[in-house]
């Protein structure tokens, strides 16, 4: 958390505290509820208003403490939301690592004044000195004899130990040679296998390359053939098109010639018409001139003026009409553009409608398929429901029958027991009465009594048996009840699924109906749009025709207007001339009248001819339009037919191409299948041969392993004997030292007494020299003995050091040997699983004949799944080793018939290099986990996690897994060395180092120390860095029969169910046999030859012990294990 009133300086902090009403603020990056903020604000306020001023009940009543999980009355009974996983009493893995301060440590100067608290406790040590004065009365000659005997015994023991050491060395050499031979054999076998595999790979690659080139050539040839056929077909099509175009050209030429002829005829007729019109006009003009008299010139002038005015009016009207027509033309052009835009929009809408229709058809087909699948699943669910109901009824019937039989048997047995007891009591009473009368027949009655008691005991034993059967039947009854509940639960789930499916079906049907309705509406709209497009096209054509006519009318009216103006001007000029010529012209009127009559007749005839020609021209035009329409329709039909034909031909060519490619693929598949069959047969034969050799090697290895185990046991026994002898030697040494000290004291006392005696005698007599010589001789002997003793001590210490060094070397070699053996065993298990997989493939190939093999891309998968119950493999995630962050590492797992093999990656899988194996015989149980099992995992991951419980002895791990150094960001929790699990600590209270005599503690600045969390051995950190050999191996070893757990994460819930069901099938029906700890020696156990001690920390999970009922598991607590003290 963050401090509420944090500031850089002390004054700033105090200022914020004093101004707490405004200074208190909550961080934005942390989400907090309103109740939590209100609680904090209520606590961080003035004491007059502070929460809890009236009592604790006020705090308890705050809304922050109101929830559904607990109240203040039952808070101690509820489970905590986070339960930390502790490995020992001093486990600090759940706390954050504190960074080491790099600043200089503060050093306190030593006080100059004498205090006295640094001195040792002088005067408080107790020495029992009277022990040295016990043997004062014994003579020095006896001590010398005992010393010589002890020396001889020591020499004999030394020789025996040397002999044993030589024997052990010879055995070790033999073991090393055997190990080297085994390694050489293994290497040779692996080299041979690698060479064979490489040669096979090379041959396979070359063969595959040749086959691929052949297939490519065949494909190219087929493609070339197909291209040649297509080119021929296209050439024929081009020829046909060329012919059709030539025919069309000829037809068009003929039509052109006809049109030219018609044009020429029409031009001739129009020229004749023009000439006739001119003649008519001339005659009309002459007639008018003749008719008009000179007197009527004025009238004619007025009429001409009127005519001019009328012409101007008509001109104006024509101009207005012209303007109107132009406006209408513009409006029609606008309408045309709008219609064209609408047409384009309609076309787009039509294309979109077609696309939506195709999409809807696809979705309808998908929905129909989904409906079929849902119906099939519904039918399956119904059949399963019926089967479950039938099973449930049968189980209920069996349960009722068993209950009835049991009650009947119980009643009958109770009645028989009561009868027997009554008879027994009656016989006892009779016997008691008869004992008084018939004392001579006591023996016979006692025998009868014994027989009755025997029968009673038999009845009791049968009763016990019946009770046991009853208990078993009750257990079965409870199991049947459980099965019935499970079946009912499944039935309810199926019902809910059925309801959901029916709802989905209803939803899908409604969607389908809506889609059909939409489709019908879109089709009807399409039809309407098509009709509108046709109507618009026809109206466009009509408008175009009207527009052309109006344009022609406009042009003709403009021409007439211009001619009329010109005529007016000419008429004004000619009026004067006509007045002059009027008189001259009157003469010719009579002549002209006759001529005009004749010309009128001719003009009428010509007009009739013109009308007939016009009628014919209009008929020709109509015929031409109809023919043009027919020609357009026929051309469109021909184009559509040609397009359809070209599309069909292209589809045909594509289908032919696909057919050729499919035939080639079929041929390739057939060839590949035959080749794979031959290759598989070859690999099967080679694998069988390698299997035979491997089985022989395995048998040899097993025998050698047994021999090595026996030798190892012998060596252990010998080592224990040597240790016992060493202890005896130590005890002898201690006794010798005590005797030596006593002899020294005796010697000093004797010398003192002799000196006193000598002084006395010298004072009495004149000092004879005989006693001095004896004293000198004894002193010399004593010196010699002391020198010999020192030499013996040095020899003994040197031999002890030598033996200890050899012992540690042997231990290291044994650990290496055991790790090598374990790795070889794991590789062998991996090879066994591969051989088993290949055997399954062989059997599946022999079962499926060549005639029934299906050609397709999934052949390998079908062959691989021949025996799905015996093998399962895939990627599964393991929990990471970091205890602070709960994560997962993906590993490749293979389940064979005997082993569970775990690989780091596919490369290790190919090289048969697993990092861990589990015996399937040692598995206890497999089950899906709950939230309480993995409280640190994500809630979404829990349906995909499952748990495996197994015996510790069934696990084999590579030592590299322990010795691998973790990543720098993931610091290990302990340092492993000689079986120890050292943790870095600091001791502020008195504690001693188990390796050296230096102090391990200090109040202010203690030295860095290490403590084993298993045996609690303490030492300085320097010993681990400088002198590792001085640290003794760990005395604690775990029981191999204890159980362990393993959590695994799959990719999906279905995959989790598949793994659980498969592993449950593979778990043995009988209880997994737990071998004694000595038989299965782990690398850590083999590293230390010391007697096992109980672990000081409880095991992480409860060890399971199996009961006899349906392989069920009872978890018994192992928390009350006693910790053994460290040996002194």
Automatic annotation (TrEMBL):
Residues 1068-1128 are annotated as: Disordered. The keyword Zinc applies. GO terms for cellular component: centrosome; cytoplasm; endomembrane system; plasma membrane. Keywords: ATP-binding, Cell membrane, Coiled coil, Cytoplasm, Cytoskeleton, Kinase, Magnesium, Membrane, Metal-binding, Nucleotide-binding, Phosphoprotein, Serine/threonine-protein kinase, Transferase, Zinc, Zinc-finger. It is an enzyme of class 2 (transferase). Residues 1113-1128 have a biased composition (Polar residues). Gene3D superfamilies: 1.20.5.340, 3.30.60.20, Pleckstrin-homology domain (PH domain)/Phosphotyrosine-binding domain (PTB) (2.30.29.30), Single helix bin (1.20.5.730), Transferase(Phosphotransferase) domain 1 (1.10.510.10). Residues 1076-1092 have a biased composition (Low complexity). Residues 695-763 form the RhoBD domain. Residues 869-1068 form the PH domain. PROSITE patterns: AGC_KINASE_CTER, PH_DOMAIN, REM_1, RHO_BD, ZF_DAG_PE_2. Residues 979-1034 form the Phorbol-ester/DAG-type domain. It is a peripheral membrane protein. Residues 151-637, 670-735 form a coiled coil. CDD domains: C1_ROCK2 (cd20875), PH_ROCK (cd01242), ROCK_SBD (cd22250). GO terms for molecular function: ATP binding; Rho-dependent protein serine/threonine kinase activity; small GTPase binding; zinc ion binding. Its cofactor is Mg(2+). Residues 66-136 form the AGC-kinase C-terminal domain. SUPFAM superfamilies: Cysteine-rich domain, G protein-binding domain, PH domain-like, Protein kinase-like (PK-like). InterPro entries: AGC-kinase_C, C1-like_sf, HR1_rho-bd, Kinase-like_dom_sf, MRCK/ROCK_PH, PH-like_dom_sf, PH_domain, PKC_DAG/PE. This is non-specific serine/threonine protein kinase. It comes from Iconisemion striatum. The gene is ROCK2.
